[in-house]
Design brief:
Strand order of the largest sheet of chain B: 6-7-8-3-9
Distance between the termini of chain A: 25 Å
Bound molecules: adenosine-5'-triphosphate, magnesium ion
Distance between the termini of chain B: 42 Å
Shape of chain A: elongated
Strand content of chain A: 15-25%
Structural class of chain B: alpha/beta
CATH topology of chain B: Rossmann fold
Shape of chain B: globular
Oligomer: heterodimer
CATH architecture of chain B: 3-Layer(aba) Sandwich
CATH class of chain B: Alpha Beta
CATH superfamily of chain B: P-loop containing nucleotide triphosphate hydrolases
Helix content of chain B: 25-40%
Largest sheet of chain B: 5 strands, parallel
Number of helices of chain B: 10
Structural class of chain A: alpha+beta
Number of strands of chain B: 9
Number of strands of chain A: 15
Chain lengths: 422, 236
Amino acid sequence: MFKLACASLWNRRVSAWLTVLAIAVSSLLLLGVERLKTQTQNNFANTISATDLIVGGRTGSTQLLLSSVFHIGNLTSTISWDSYQHLKSLPGVAWSIPLAMGDSVRGFPVVATTGDYFEFFRYGQQQPLSFADGAMFANEQQLVVGAEVAVQLGLRVGDPVTVAHGSGGPSFSQHDDHPFVVSGILQRTGTPVDQALYIALEGLGLVHGEYIPASVESGDHGHNHHDHNHDDEHAEPPVYTLSAVLLGLQSKPLALRLQRDINTYRAEPMTAIIPGVALQEFWRTMQVFERALFSISVLVVITGLIGMLTTLLASLRERRREMAILRAIGAGPVQIFSLLVSEALVLTSAGLVLAVAGLFGVIGLGGELLQQWFGLSLSATGLTAAEWRLIAAILVAALFLSLVPAWRAYRLALADGLSVKL
Amino acid sequence: MSACITLEHVRFRWPGAQHHTLDIPQLSIQRGEQVLLRGPSGCGKSTLLSLIAGIHCPTEGQLQVLNQPLTALNQRQRDRLRANEIGYIFQQFNLLPYLSAVANVALACQFAPARRQRLQQQGLSVDQASAALLTRLGLSTAEQQLHAQQLSVGQQQRVAAARALLGAPALIIADEPTSALDQAHRDAFIEVLFEQCAAQQSTLLFVTHDATLAKHFARVIEFTAINAVQREAKHV
Ligand SMILES: Nc1ncnc2c1ncn2[C@@H]1O[C@H](COP(=O)(O)OP(=O)(O)OP(=O)(O)O)[C@@H](O)[C@H]1O
Ligand SMILES: [Mg+2]
């Protein structure tokens, strides 16, 4: 029966191929969306780990998350250096990473931080950052480059880099008098870490004229910035304001209490978020789009299957002679029925095989482009359980839809018998 | 000789029709007989054949084929009986156009385990037997591999005959198989059909409206003589 179904389909191969193609393309869309969804979600969850709190000026939690972790958007509110000192001194804080952002190199964000960033920052499953080449910045004129930036800008250790103020392209005011030199290139992480450059806070202060290195300081006492904080007990801060601070705590359960304390800090309005919670909240807002995309692709698959239904139904008219011959050699209506069901399954399976091949083809051949153009990183891992479930669902849907032409063929076979008047 | 086909008071009416198409008080055909059933167009010959083939069921009466009371069998049993024991030849378009001639013949065993078994007993595979039968019916090895649509109508009918004959079913039913052939081909076709039926002791029920074929057959049944339904009555 199966062989007959194949032979019969081969006889109608043009329409059969088109049907297979429609099913393949629509299933590819569905599988692609599914893969995109899960892998982006994973990438998302992998962007940051070990950090218990992210603190910034008074702002929305999504905005703080996006700017501090994903380097998306600008934070208008900041926190002062004094508040940072306060945060560091809070009980239970194990480590802190100050972040100051706002500058860029040819569109890639520049993050000013301290050496603690390379020591304490974790992504994925508690993975630390490591250097592919060179080392972390040793002074305010050195700069560390994320893996993707290094590739895109063709930067190597020792190369000079000019930092521009603002996040735009090179047309923005460039701090030409403070060129940086690449001191190290980070190992690829698959997170936004790859997409940024890192300088010391002092480097940023220097660029913005907020900080005078000690050597210059001792030579030139007349600098007004120095005079300004002359009687301050603390050392001169490298910058006056920070965009965000990442905090690691001695024990995770402390996070909730500290969050409340920080959010109600009197001296300066601040926002503290727990990264895991904020990521989930953000993901929930993203789910609206993701669900919409998924629903659309489900509808497209249904369209593909209805196309198959139409083709099969239309073919029945020309195939009444074929059915009568099969009846004559002893096929019962049940066999005619199963012939049409198996045809539908053959078409759908072929479409699905093509779709899966297409999925891996797109990821394998076009993965690079997707990464570059849309920042989507898809990996060609084997089919996940969810993807298998989708494939099974499509097959089951095809099976159910095929009952329509199968039933019609069954009725025709009974009515026509052996006498087909064409 | 035992009976191959027996009809007693068989009546048949198409669903929705006002009159009976068939009303046959009695008809009996013995095993091994070669019978010509002759009648004018539209009198119900094909209808009778579809009853005998177990496609449709008599509205009333008793119909036995090969000692099986068809009226007592269910759809699947009738389909199985047809597959195993009845070879059917249509007037035209007997073949699946997308299969080769030999594959079309082999199709006869698709739903017919008994036919396959009989071939096995002769030590033949389905393909071997199909090819051998086609050779005997006059198709060259090259022609046997051609697709059905590449064959002439006469060749197609011989392939159809081979399919009906494969695996020695007890009954061969031919519904005007020669009406698309010319005189010479028609006679040749009937000749080989007779030969093969005799060789494997199959009963042959041959239907036609062509009176000139009667000379080939030992027994000729005039359809109007056995069918009590008057054609005129149908048109009233
Ligand atoms: N599938 C069908 N449904 C309803 N009525 C039918 C059907 N097939 C045949 N009939 C009716 O049964 C009658 C006999 O038809 P049938 O095909 O048996 O004639 P026939 O003797 O085989 O004619 P011919 O020699 O032209 O083949 C016709 O009047 C026809 O209208
Ligand atoms: Mg007829």
